[in-house]
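Exercise 7. Predict the structure of Fanconi anemia group D2 protein from Rhodosorus marinus.
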Amino acid sequence: MSSSPGKRSRSDAVDSVDLEQEFDEGELKEKLLKGGLRISPCGGHYVVENVHQLVRELRFGIIAESSASSARIADIMANLEQSWSDVEKFRRSLVPFRSPDECTSSKFLFGRDTLVKVLLAIDSLQTGVLNVLLQRIPELTMEEDEGGESYTDLAKLAVSQMRWLDFVVDGAALSETLLDVISACPERIQRELILVTPELVQDAQHSTAVDVLITLLENSPELSEPILRALNGLILGSQASTACNTVLRALSSSEPDHVPFMIRFLVCSAPSFLIPESVNKMRRIFAQRSLGPGAAKLALEEFRDGIRARLEFGDMAMQSLKDSQEKYCPGDLWMMLALLDVLSFRKRIESLVKLALIRGHISSDLFSSAFETHQDALSGFSTSMIKFANLTMCSGSESAAEISQKQYLLLYKMNDRNDLHREIIGSLLEHVGCRKTKIVRRAFDCLIYIAQNVDLSAFMPFLGGLLDFLESFEDEQVSQVFELLGTVRIRSGQIENDQSLEIILRKELTHVDEKFRRIGVLGSCTLAQVFSEEKAAQDQAKAILALLFKSVENNRSAEALAYKQLALTCEKDRMERSLTKAIRRKCLKVFEARFAGKLEDKPSSILDMDIEAKYNLDGEDASISIPIVALAHKGRLGDAHTLCPLIELLCETTKRLASGSLDDTDAILGCPLWMPADSVLDSLSDQAMPVQVAAATSLLLAAMWIRCIVNAFSTSTSADIQGAICERIENLYTIEESLQDLINQQPVCKDAVGEFLGVKAQTKPLKLSDFLRPLDVAVTGVIVSNAHNASVSTGEAQLVLHELNLFCTHRSRYLPRERKTAITALTSLRVFVFNPGEGAMDESDCVCLRMALHCLAVAIGNEGLVHEKDFYGLLFNLAPKESNDDDTEIGKWEPAELGTKFFRSLVARMECMEDDDESHDLVTKMEFARLLTAAALRTGSAELASEVASQIDKILDRALEESEKHGRVSNYVAELVGMRMKLSSDELDVISNMLKRPTENTTLVKVLLDELQRVAANCPSNIDQLRALFNAHSELVDRSRDQPTVFGSLMKCGRTVAQAFSGKMIPCLRERLNTHRQESLQLIKDFQRSTRVLQHICTHVKAQKSSKQTPLVPSLKRALETVIFSVKGLLESNDASSAFWMGNLKHRNLQGDVVASQAYHRAGDTETATQASTVRSCGESELSQLPEAPSKEEDQNHEELASESNPSETNEGSAEGATENNDEERPDGLKMFEEAAANSDDDQ
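Solution. The predicted structure, encoded as tokens:
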């Protein structure tokens, strides 16, 4: 039970004696005793039964009895100061009170009141107590206890008493004292005092405190952390720039532990004009190894949390990332992670990352330097990194595939949490199920890459579920599923104990459905490859191959697929050597049994058709022959399907076993083929249908055989083999030309060839080159490099150029060997471009020239094939050499210099072209233009682009002249205009220059309208750019008003331009109307003339009821109405509302003549709400006094009369709207507007 204050027990008497010794006699001691303050028996703290009673006694007792006089307060402070000079007494004042029941406990209770806090809560005592407290703090740091240690901890405890004060009585005095004490204390106490400064300093003293802290920051960098935290809690005002500049100067050289606080301060406090510099500094600071994982992680977290609170800083960071796309550094990727973690910026940063990946601005090396070396620092950003990995996975760029593999593996390794592992694997499996081929392939590549580096056996229940969806995957994806599962099985060490995959393969291989047998073949080949790479699993690989060959013995389609897949595996050199030998023995056995025969062993004739051995390059030395004609028999078509895959596999296994040599199999390169005799082929139209089918099939098999053979031997450097390849290409050209003619002439042959190739029946012509296996790029290199001699005919050259063009166009990924060979082949094309030979060029030479130019243009535009260094080397080697040129000097040439040299040579070659047929000459010049444009865009030289643009202008003039004669030339006009737009940085200037041409060419007008629509959609809010846009639009409207064929493009363009006028021009005019009144009004007037013509065209289109153009009317009219009300709002906001009124818009034809509305609409016709805008209480809406658009003749006459009568009035009246020019129908709007404008000017 607690005793009352008036009655004291024996123990209380002891305590009171101690308290009497605690303070001198005086008012303070009396009030404390009366409030129930005692000392515990142990003497370590004060005991108070009721804290509220103590506070009440101090507060009201002092005020009531002493009236808080300064003398009494001074006595109390003197008493307090005397008491606190004793360290133990001072300590008891700082230690929390305890109740009588707790007085014997040694447990320290946080959050309780102390004597100091109670005294600070008394208004009349607070200032004095703070002064005593602040004076005592520096003294404690200089005193020492019995052990020789300073009372620093006690000083920190004293500082903590000043936190969270409910009020400050005298802020100015406290601020002055506090700032003086800070400079007098050692560093450890300074940190505590600085941190408490924002809580004690009042708003009026913030400026002084900021000055002191900035000075202290400059002189004591080690105090950066508390100073910056304190500055964040103060009102900086105009001193923010000084503080931020100080921090920016110290950021690069500061201690790593201080960097997070500096970044937090800059993000929260940097003025707007310092944000760009702050962002650039942070870009260089992030991802530095010198920071260390802890500081780097905190720095990035502070940046993320800061931009969440201050979106302005995040916007500037976004802008900085956009501006520096081509020069990204590792810190930029860190900023992207932080921005991805902020919801306000997530969509924008995702778009930016996708664009950077597509353009190749984020490379694999950049990713490695940004993420792989900072795994510990980025451990808290796993969610953002998963989002980033998903973006790389979904990017259309092939270079992002490697990045996504590295990132998913990094994410898996840097986190030990199972939930994150599940999220990563689940994210990849989600991509697997998206049904987008590229993304599915990349997701499987990532899973395989992870499985090769870490054990994924824990996720086999999830990964094994992929087997349930095998029939939904493509062939490549099926192989990837089995490669993934096989890799996981090897990594887990369960090779011998787990036979689940073999059971599935046996089930698929013996399935009656061809689709599932195909899955079994793909899985068997893939698992054999995966297991052969692991020594412990090679026995399983042999067993799988034995099962595969046994299962496909009686199924030729499955056998052909097996050979093809094994050939791809051997080509990648991923099959173990002993298994490769076994596969080669199997191939030789099958080849000798089914296909190989001696030259003298003439196969039995089928269908009584004459046959003969053709295309024999070895002559009498031929050791084998191939019975192509026998394979064309219906009963052996299955064997025919296996011929080429078998030869591919045989050659690949021989290369792997003989270090790339094919000497053991060179007999197949020059061996003869048993084919239908020439007499049969010459009279094939008179032969029976089975003979025609057999002949066509024989030619197809021969073409496939030759393509397969030359591809296999293409990498050989032997001159004899290269000569044989040239002869085989000549044979191939002859065979395919004959077969293509046969397909075009005989429908039965077309059906037979299409059925063999697996092409569905179709009515359009069957083009062989689209379905046969492409020639290897090395083959094209061999042929092109030998094109200068007579061993290569024009037909051969055209064939290989076509194949090279396909290689440069249709490939998405290139191996280093393929790239190197392709560059060599492209360099050899100079034979066709610059060395045409003596005399005039015939048609075949022109075809070769055009194909070579087109191939070069496609290759130069394909950055995945021709890298930057290869590009400039290609330019250097293509251009004709001069006597003073040195190949070794290419590294010293500037890119623009190389581009200019190539440009000069190409233009000179183009000017030498002569052809009697003008359209053919234009076709060739178009190829020159494509190549010049591709080279100029790749070099990035403004001077070269200007020179190329001048050449394209000449070709465009030629195309415009011939477009009236040849309809196909019209397509060239659109392409040439597109080239000019790409080469210029000012697209509106290009359109304006195009409009200076006097021609009324319909194609040119339509193309310019389409280009103007695209430019208008992205035009910046710049008054000069917008003025040029609307001037070009007005000119195009005048040119196309009498050309109904372009009305569709005109209406689309007009809608976009009208939207640009409302959304971008009106805000610009709102700022300029008062200062540039006449200029602004004239611009509105000129644009209204175009809108009138668009209204007339809408009326005409509705009358014609065009199914393509009529749907465009509502959106165009809606945009035009928006313009009207936007102008009305503009005039009203500038005190010129009297110059605008609403009138009735009359129906007019294309010539501007008024017509009755019934002339365009039959009785009973209805209109939509947008089209029938006249159904308004105020009539149709237009600007009030601008004249309606008359015909072209009326425009000219009106302008002449205006200039003769009163030239000063020709530019006035530009803000009025939709009433007619008839003075009887409208009031004098011009006068009204001039008066309103004058009044507005006077007011301003």
